[in-house]
Amino acid sequence: MGNAARGAVVVAGAVATVVALSGCSVLGAGTRTAEAPAPSASATTAATPGTASCDLASGTGSVSIEETADAYRVEWSGVPTDDDGARQEYQVQLGTASQDDHITMYIEFDSITGATTYGWFDPDTLDVDPVPGDPDTSAGTVVGVFPKQRDIDASYWSPSWSKTTTEDSDTTYCTQDGQVLDWTPLD
What we know:
- By secondary structure, this protein is mainly β.
- The protein folds into two domains: 1-31, no CATH class; 51-182, Immunoglobulin-like (Sandwich).
- Helices cover 11% and strands 39% of the residues.
- It has one helix and eleven strands.
- The chain has one helix spanning 3-22; strands at residues 51-55, 62-67, 71-77, 86-95, 102-110, 115-122, 127-130, 141-147, 156-165, 169-173, 181-182.
- The strands form two sheets. Strands 4, 5, 6, 7, 9, 10 and 11 form a seven-stranded antiparallel beta sheet that branches. It has a four-stranded antiparallel beta sheet with strand order 1-2-3-8, with no helix packed on it.
- A hairpin with a 6-residue loop joins strand 1 and strand 2.
- The longest helix has 20 residues, at 3-22.
- The relative contact order is 0.22.
- Residues 1-43 have low confidence and may be disordered.
């Protein structure tokens, strides 16, 4: 084996070791691990079943979620809804501990096109199944009510806010490391 081939094997082994130690998969984004990522130590946990909240790691706002018998109510505060030349995306995902099932609530205000997208995000088709009405922005917050489509035995929630311009995109989570937060569903 030549030096170039030996070096490539060493580099490949080092990359595989780093990936394995980080808990990631080298098989691609569609592959799931057996367990959900551990919640970050700084995460706000859901002490009351069906409710949770957290401050965004950027210090720009907060998000809360409340589950009722037939819907989820998500409220974002301290974040913009209309920003000339930008697309604002607000997402909250609820998922199972095994990461084999999740649902994603999605709101997007696109000041580039003037369009608003509001509904359940389907990761397989990348489409959004609309929910009735429009998100409420009248109180300087972004509030969405998402009628339940199906039950899910969720153990984590993962909110994110993204701002996309023609030059770049930035996503903010509730934890610096992007980890999920504990969720306790209603009984």
